[in-house]
TrEMBL record:
<dbReference type="Pfam" id="PF24038">
    <property type="entry name" value="DUF7347"/>
</dbReference>
<dbReference type="InterPro" id="IPR036388">
    <property type="entry name" value="WH-like_DNA-bd_sf"/>
</dbReference>
<feature type="domain" description="DUF7351">
    <location>
        <begin position="97"/>
        <end position="262"/>
    </location>
</feature>
<protein>
    <submittedName>
        <fullName>Helix-turn-helix domain-containing protein</fullName>
    </submittedName>
</protein>
<dbReference type="InterPro" id="IPR011991">
    <property type="entry name" value="ArsR-like_HTH"/>
</dbReference>
<dbReference type="InterPro" id="IPR036390">
    <property type="entry name" value="WH_DNA-bd_sf"/>
</dbReference>
<dbReference type="Pfam" id="PF24042">
    <property type="entry name" value="DUF7351"/>
</dbReference>
<feature type="domain" description="DUF7347">
    <location>
        <begin position="6"/>
        <end position="79"/>
    </location>
</feature>
<dbReference type="InterPro" id="IPR055775">
    <property type="entry name" value="DUF7351"/>
</dbReference>
<dbReference type="InterPro" id="IPR055771">
    <property type="entry name" value="DUF7347"/>
</dbReference>
Length: 265
């Protein structure tokens, strides 16, 4: 973090400036100075101009057609809508259809402290878990587990595609061993965030696995992680990990190398 970051946070540390950003977000087109001031409901033109000036250049762009949000302003307002900075949501625990693929125990989903989890009530294994914005679980109380699963799978895809879900910086991947077997680890070169999960998570979107499921009249993308009985069938194979995907008794073997590249064995 640099002094520029401190200046950016200071620029929006005012309720009036946040209102300006929200009004520009809601506008379909750029807004003239007077129209924007009317929407924000500030009578003092000088005071309004000062606060608008503090946003201009970094969060707000002045064009021939009026004022509009820059990309940074859009990202900031979107973050406010996500509820990460403004909401303290809690959902569950709620029962989940299916059983733990480690011990066969019952499952439940919960969301609290910005963390979503699907875990086993018997052995305590966390089958799916990670940070989830409150907005993503809003209205999904009846399907909480699926919402958590879907959100975290999008993060896996982002990491595998080479960019950090937190800051969009470049990621590098490698294998790591723990009590649950070979783990895939992605680290961001920019912010230092790390994302970990069992190596089989990299097979979820591999073309061979998608086709394998399709050939059996199924969709791996519609299946929840805890429904994939092969998900923990991962073994270390030298510097790589071997994943065995099983559908209707048929098997497909994949290899995840130390850089997390996936190939058919």
């Amino acid at each position: 973090m640099t002094a520029d970051a401190e200046d950016a946070f200071a620029a929006v540390a005012d309720e009036l400036r946040v209102r300006i950003l929200r009004e520009l977000w809601d506008a379909d087109d750029p807004l003239a100075f007077s129209d924007l001031r009317t929407r924000v409901d500030v009578r003092d033109s000088g005071r309004f101009n000062y606060h608008l000036g503090e946003l201009r250049g970094r969060f707000v762009e002045q064009t021939d057609d009026g004022y509009e949000l820059r990309f940074a302003g859009q990202k900031l307002v979107a973050a406010l809508h996500s509820g990460v900075y403004t909401e303290d949501a809690s959902v569950g625990p709620v029962p989940v259809d299916g059983t733990c693929f480690d011990c066969g125990g019952t499952l439940e989903a919960r969301y609290e402290d910005e963390l979503g989890r699907v875990e086993c009530t018997d052995c305590g294994m966390n089958l799916v878990g990670g940070g989830v914005p409150p907005a993503f679980v809003d209205g999904r109380e009846d399907d909480l587990a699926a919402a958590i699963d879907g959100y975290l799978r999008t993060q896996i895809r982002q990491c595998a595609d080479g960019f950090c879900p937190q800051c969009s910086g470049p990621t590098t991947g490698f294998l790591e061993e723990n009590d649950y077997g070979p783990q895939a680890v992605f680290e961001c070169e920019r912010c230092g965030a790390a994302f970990r999960g069992i190596a089989s998570m990299l097979a979820l979107d591999h073309p061979a696995v998608v086709a394998f499921y399709h050939d059996h009249g199924r969709s791996v993308r519609n299946a929840r992680i805890w429904e994939l009985r092969w998900f923990d069938d991962v073994e270390r194979d030298g510097d790589a990990a071997r994943v065995t995907v099983t559908v209707d008794g048929d098997e497909l073997e994949l290899v995840v190398d130390d850089s997390l590249a996936v190939s058919v064995a």
